[in-house]
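User: My instructor asked us to take a sequence, write out its structure as tokens, and then describe one feature of it. I'm not sure where to start. Here is the sequence I was given:
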Amino acid sequence: MALAHRIDVHHHPSPPSYLDARESGNRANPPRMTWTVEKSLDMMDRGGVAASMLSLPHSVSIWPDKGEQGRRLAREWNEFMAKLAADHPGRFGVFATLPILDVEGSLRELEYALDTLKADGVNFMTNIGDRWLGDPHYWPVFEELNRRKALAYTHPVAPDCCAGMYEEFNDSVIEYGTDTTRAIAKLLFSGAASRFPDIRFIFSHAGGTMPFIAERFLRAHLYAKQDIKARLPNGVMPELKKLYYDTAQSA
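Assistant: Let's start with the prediction itself. The structure tokens for your sequence are:
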């Protein structure tokens, strides 16, 4: 057993209703179907991981609607993760799921998750089908997260435009890294990053392709129209340096 000293911010459990929702949305994933908490703890011990932050990545297609059923699923998943954390003190934290198509429902679940369940932060996906992180749709939720100086972990998912493009391999091979970059770009150039400076964003997979094309971000800002440039008053690089990046699948 390795010395437990790492914190894994990229760790996914599998509540039964989560698996059902993924299957109904044609998003089944074989490793997820056989997940157990015992497997997680064994993997953590072998890898020297002291604690793992639980989150539930998902496509927008798994949400059944924008109303009560979506709110119910998010509540079930968050309570499932909170119970894992309570049953294994010190080994798990929680990034709560929000029914993000439903802004009012997301604000209610955010309050419940952070204040009652004592979640450590929330989980966003890089897009909600045709809108990326930073779109004004998110701003009411960002306002509350900013007020709380909260953590927001972000996991990629293929957007509507580009899902299922290849028969030979699944979306995660190319789209996950690419869509992480789209989300970071939207967060910056929409002005959301500077408008909500106290949200602590964590991005998956070392920031996707962004580190390799950061110079293009700089040039985009340099030659942008004045109204776009004004959304990044501190420039691009200070905003990129404020973000956090996990190292999953980045070696």
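For the description part of your assignment, you could build on this observation: The beta strands are 6-11, 49-54, 92-97, 121-125, 151-155, 200-203, 244-245. Try explaining in your own words what that tells you about the chain.
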